[in-house]
Design a protein that fits this description.
With 120 residues, the chain is an alpha+beta fold. Helix content is 25%, strand content 42%. The protein has one domain (25-116): 2-Layer Sandwich (Alpha-Beta Plaits), CATH 3.30.70.100. It is built from 3 helices and 6 strands; from the N terminus they run E-E-E-H-E-E-H-H-E.
Length: 120
Amino acid sequence: MRTASTWRRVIPDHVEVEQTFEGAMIGVLTHHWAKTDKVDEAHKLLDRNGEAQSKAPGFVNRQTLYSQIDPTKITTLVVWTSNEIYDAWRASPARAAAMSGADALWSRPPESERFEVART
């Protein structure tokens, strides 16, 4: 397990900064399945959530992936500086606001898994 990592991060105003984080960073991979008639709304909601995440302490970066096989499947990979930081985000009022109404968009519950980020 690495004790420090250096990342280049583009912050919301598109300025690149270099940051060094102590401890192992984590990646959170989450699969979402939108209801067939709610795909556009699901994209907008997840974009709103990503914008809110980008302003949160400990956020590193985020990728949104759209399935080539299932048009209702949206996957996000978000990197955070630590499990504790991610837990704080999950409990935050900002996340609650960004994800308001999400349950009505999903055809099944989202599935998430945390990973340790390997740096080479």
